[in-house]
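Hey team,

Filing this mostly as a record. A colleague (T.K.) asked me to run one chain through the structure pipeline before their review meeting, and I want the input and output archived in the tracker in case anyone asks later how it was produced. No errors, nothing strange. Just documentation.

Input sequence:
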Amino acid sequence: MKKWFFDRFLPMWAKESVLRDNRILLRENQALRQQVKELKAYIRGMQAGLRRKRQEEVK
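Output structure:
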C-alpha cells in the first residue's frame, strides 16, 4: 500500500527523499533496538547479582 502510494502520487524527488529518510530512520531504529537489548542484558545481570548478594546476606 505504502509503495503504491509513493509510486502513484509522489513526484520522483519526493519519493527519493522519503525512501532515503526511511533508510536513515531504519538504521537508527536498528541501532536503538541493539542498545535496548544490551541495556536489558545489563539490567538482568545487575538484578541477578543483587539477588545473589541478598541471599548471601540472609545466610
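Quick notes for T.K.: The chain is about 95% helix and 0% strand. The mean pLDDT is 88.
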